[in-house]
Design goal:
single chain; 212 residues; mainly alpha; 72% helix; globular
Amino acid sequence: MPRRLVHLYTGLVLYGLSMGLQLRAGLGLEPWSVLNQGISRHTGLSIGTITIVSGALILLLWIPLRQRPGLGTVSNVVILGLVMDATLALVPDLSALAVRIPLLVTAILLNGMATGLYISARFGPGPRDGLMTGLHRRTGRPLRLVRTCIEITVLAAGFALGGSVGVGTVLYALAIGPLAQFSLRFFTIDGPGGRIVASSTPAAEPAPLPHG
């Protein structure tokens, strides 16, 4: 249990850090951050605050989907936004591409490592992953199709609201799967329960990659 808690909270802190660094790189965000940034620009609230609020609202969608949150779910809602805002407060805006490109690569690598740490803790998925697995179970559609539809919808809405889409968005989409899979294998903790995904009944299938 202590090791799982370390994995959970280290992973969440690093995930929030990676989100802030990717934003500071200014070369494009991952889909959910694109949406949160777009909403932030129209509301005047910080992107970290929007990340927390949107995570909490998404949890409400779990109710008709009969999803069950875990410690990791609730922690995800709060920690990612707080750490992201703290990172943005500490890291200034950058203009030189010679700095922004390595920062983008570092952010994506860090995100992949954070994903493995967070999932390996087996304390339940983040709110956005729970939405994805819930829709998969309720509709019977393939998980990849559900995930793709959600991310395209979120990305399009975020772009329409003025969120940052660019080469970083594409690089993240291509790299995060392999990076997270490698990281998960490296950090997996042996023990009862396997990898947890949110559901109305216990399941033994692998957990999907989190989006915060």
